[in-house]
Amino acid sequence: MTTKLKDVQNPLLFEIAWEVANKVGGIYTVIKTKAPVTVQEYGDRYCLIGPLSYKSAPMEVEALEPPTPELKETLDNMTSQGIKSLFGRWLIEGAPYVLLFDTGSAYGRLDEWKGDLWKVAGIPSPSGDHETNEAILFGYLVSWFLGEIAARFNKKENPPAVIAHFHEWLAGVAVPLIRKRHIDIATVFTTHATLLGRYLCAGSVDFYNNLQYFNVDDEAGKRGIYHRYCIERAAAHCCDVFTTVSDITAYESEHLLKRKPDGVLPNGLNVVKFSAMHEFQNLHAISKDKISNFIRGHFYGHYDFDLENTLYLFTAGRYEYRNKGVDMFVEALARLNHRLREIQSPMTVVAFIIMPGRTESFAVEALKGQALTKALRETVREIQDRVGKKIYETALRGHEIEAKEVMSSEDNILLKRRTFALKRTTLPPIVTHNIINDSEDPVMNQLRRLSLFNYPGDRVKVIFHPEFLNANNPLIGMDYEEFVRGCHLGVFPSYYEPWGYTPAECTVMGVPSITTNLSGFGCFMEDSIENTEDYGIYIVDRRMKSVDESINQLADQMFRFAQKSRRQRINQRNRTERLSDLLDWKRMGLEYVKARQLALRRVYGDSFDTEDTADGYFDQGNHNKIPKPLSVPGSPNPEAVDDEYEDHL
């Protein structure tokens, strides 16, 4: 407990993460999308701290002079001792202050700091781990900065309270240093996933049913991550408030990190609401047409299915074959294919797997298909222009139009040549790229084992795209968000998913999704909605069911979705989109407010007028779930849907 009274009504907030203005993974999305609501609350009293990446910083940060004498003096002192940094505004919505440290400028102190870390916190650090070395350098720079600036502010008449919020183990080294050095700061540490949990789940272990039995030190040692685990555990134990992103990760952290989290801080998104419901449905139709153009090229020569009776499913994320549930998705697709063929369904399902793998180049056959269909499209357009002009001129003269005279023999020959070029004897490829050592690729091997080769009679077609999407892609020239909007269903049957941004992003865009009760998002939705499936959130039970039962449940959910009429899908998308308010940072950000208030009261309790400890801030209590919709199953009023876009959905 600090001895000097602080201004707890106007505290300073520093938020520290490895992915500040430095996109590596999902935490970048968390920090970036949360910034506007935090700036709205704190204004210029909010500053983000991260490592300086000379590759991304020039495009992401506008350099500025430090706005306060305390900040300027602190940075000038560090600069005089050889530490390089960049202060400015992050060029995102909200434009928060950002401070980036060049860890390379402190490499001369690495051995000294590693020795100090062992002496102060008992944390070992092997020499060959570059990532850990970077985390140590960053942690010591952050604790140095925070210690100096807190001391300078403490000299003021009414010094502000200081909160430092750390995300993940890479930013966690500073937390035990702040505690051991008695730096006058309130700390919050959030783990977005545990190191050991991710490693254990990637192996073939029954993780969740054996959590309490793992020898954590032994398991971390066997996987060569003991020193990283020590940093993560020290941060969890030395912070004033310990939080995770979901209830499932809180349960995991309690057993692996040996501290029960004080609360849960779910991840949110910036939700853009459309003024009219049909707007996002129109965006779906436009994006779906772009995907359909790709499908026409990819399946040339075997384009034997009706795109009006075709559904686009997808899964996406890091290439973690078991953790992301790709193994379950592919197996369920094989069972879905069998069931659709058995009932002779007219519906075709095209399933995309979007995950970055080790590739050499685009597959020639995949590029050839797009080139041939593009040439055909251009030829048809030219013939249309010539035929249209001929019909117009003939009609102007008042002559009757003979069908055989509409197209010239040259146009007929040209069209036949383009059509014959589309014939092929090989099957449409199941992968769009040339994969390095594809015989060792788990997705490719499973597709081969299950004979998912895009045979003409298959009702489920598979396309593995081992690269993230972008608008410059010569095959699927769409950004990820645009691609998601064009799909009908996202499938994310993850085994290890502390939160799950991919299904959350689907929800905000009005795209139904399948998740699991082992993902933070799935558990959150189960707690928030009376009947999730009616709102387009399908949840696979991977906790209490066997693997085979879970696969059958997933196949059943996809089968039921494939049986829906077009109007039922429209109705369900409307309901899904209405859930987006649940995921808005304006709502989710309130949990961050609670965490910061709890940290302030624990550290600066004497500075508050009341005796309230705030320990009950995170109590969930009995909250009301969103009830079942009035129409079950989805069957909207026919007059409520515009026919002008219904035909494209």
Describe the fold and architecture.
With 649 residues, the chain is α/β, with parallel strands linked by helices. It folds into 3 domains: 9-264, Glycogen Phosphorylase B (Rossmann fold); 278-363 and 429-582, Rossmann fold (3-Layer(aba) Sandwich), CATH 3.40.50.2000; 366-427. It has 23 helices and 17 strands. The protein has helices at residues 26-42, 57-60, 69-80, 110-121, 130-154, 174-180, 195-202, 216-222, 226-238, 247-256, 277-298, 326-342, 364-396, 403-406, 409-421, 442-449, 480-486, 501-508, 520-528, 547-563, 566-578, 585-603, 643-646; strands spanning 7-16, 46-51, 61-63, 85-90, 97-101, 160-167, 186-191, 241-244, 263-264, 310-316, 348-354, 359-362, 433-435, 460-465, 489-491, 513-516, 537-540. The protein is elongated. Residues 634-648 have low confidence and may be disordered. Its EC number is 2.4.1.11. One of its GO terms (molecular function) is alpha-1,4-glucan glucosyltransferase (UDP-glucose donor) activity. Residues 640-649 have a biased composition (Acidic residues).
